């Protein structure tokens, strides 16, 4: 079994309340997802985040392939963190932790995603050929979009680590 991890950090010049307000609103996920992903929320984004919330959407990870994805918000600590886990979708495992940490002059957002692909060796091959690159593009887009929406934190760069 091959378990992969994405670990990103980004500082933004906003306070914890503003960061939480934006990030804990499931409808905003569409704003920070590349248009090429064909992200379309079906249900579950009509109210603020809470433990047990089920969010359903469609994504198009590649042309011609439309996938239904269902996630559950499993943990929420207001102004600190929340966790979403895939219940149905393209991964065998998807566990995504979102942290909001106060820092001088703003917040540091930290994402840790642990995931596993189906199909054994074929899944590992697909990870190396395209999945890893696609996820890097999605998180890079997210960084750029959040900077566009909230401004650049002085003297920082974003860190993306993947195994």
From TrEMBL:
Stated name of the protein: Cell division inhibitor
UniProt-listed SUPFAM superfamilies: Bet v1-like
InterPro entries: START-like_dom_sf
